[in-house]
Design a protein that fits this description.
Length: about 140
Amino acid sequence: MKPRVLYHGSPKNILGMINPSRAVDINNSHPENNLNAVYASDNRTLAISRAVEKGNFPKDWMNVEKSSRIFLYAVPSETFEQTKSDSSQYVSFVSVFPIRVEVINVPDYLSLREPNCWEHLAAYPKSLLDKMLLGFAASPF
């Protein structure tokens, strides 16, 4: 069953509607990763990590400005379809209006860019990952 809310991460502060745009699959492994669409995920951790990747921030967190931010948009799922190649990925071919936006501090999430991160994250249930990262983001350290 499709969740009511999905997450779209972006390094840009989008005002108003999130419009479809052409995605580029650098491996060109799945045609559905090259669509002119709005991409979203049911996994907020995955949406955050994709926004960090799109932001071209330095991998070394010591070189990232403490003020570096990305934006996590909660979007209604009505116009989204689940992709066949990735069960956590959804696409919408029409513009969507965010329900809410969360500003994310990039240095808190740079570990999501580590090479073995995807295998490590896949071992955890989505609900646990969300709780872990929410707690981490609130930590003063």
